[in-house]
Structures are given as structure tokens and as C-alpha cells.
Amino acid sequence: MYKKIAIALIPLLALTACGAPSESDISQAFNTELARVPPPYTPKLIDLERIGCSSADDAYVCDVKTRVSNPMMGNELTSTGRLRLVKAGGEWVISGRL
To answer: What's the predicted TM-score (pTM) here?
Structure first.
């Protein structure tokens, strides 16, 4: 009986291993995008919350809530949005905002 359960779980585990980006993956991709803004205008990611992700063709569309500081204005901006992420070179990258 346990052998049947283990065999039934293999496809589920395989999908999990190559699934949607984690909150950490999305934060790293977001920071990479922010780093493209030249100093002293470079915003800083304070917090990112992954609300959820869904598969979309060869990518994932993720709903996120972010809190970013603006060094020039001295304030913080909290926003919610959708990011399209793809895996390139073994890392998740943001390929668009929806």
C-alpha cells in the first residue's frame, strides 16, 4: 500500500521541484531590476510578499505586494501588482509587469 502511495506522489513532487518562483526568487529578481536605476536614485526593496502565482505559457504570473523606499524623496511606497517571471540562465527574471 505504501509503495502505491509513494508512486502516486512522484509526479506531484516533480511538479513542485520545477514549480513557481518562491518569494525569495521574486525578491532577488525585483532587486536585480531596482539595481538598474543609477545612484543616488536607486530605490531599495524593504519588503515583498508573494500573494500567489499561476502558470502562463513558459512563464509564471505572480501577484505581489511590495514596499520600496525612495532615497531621493525620503519616503516609502507600498503597492500591489502582477509580475511576469521566466527562468533564464537558472535564475528567475522579471519579463514584464501586468
So the answer is: 0.78
Q: Which domains does the chain have, with CATH numbers?
A: 21-97 (3.10.450.540)
State the cell numbers at 92.
528567475
Strand 44-56: give its sheet, edge to edge. Answer: 44-56, 59-70, 75-88, 91-97
Do the Cβ atoms of 42 and 72 come closer than 8 Å?
no
How many angstroms separate the CA atoms of 42 and 28, rounded? Answer: 15
84 with 97: CB under 8 angstroms? Answer: yes
Nearest to 85 by CA among 77, 75, 95: 95
76/96 Cα distance (integer angstroms): 23
Residue type at position 92: W
Cell representation of residue 46: 524593504
pLDDT tens readout for residues 29-65: 999 999 999 998 999 999 999 999 999 989 999 999 9
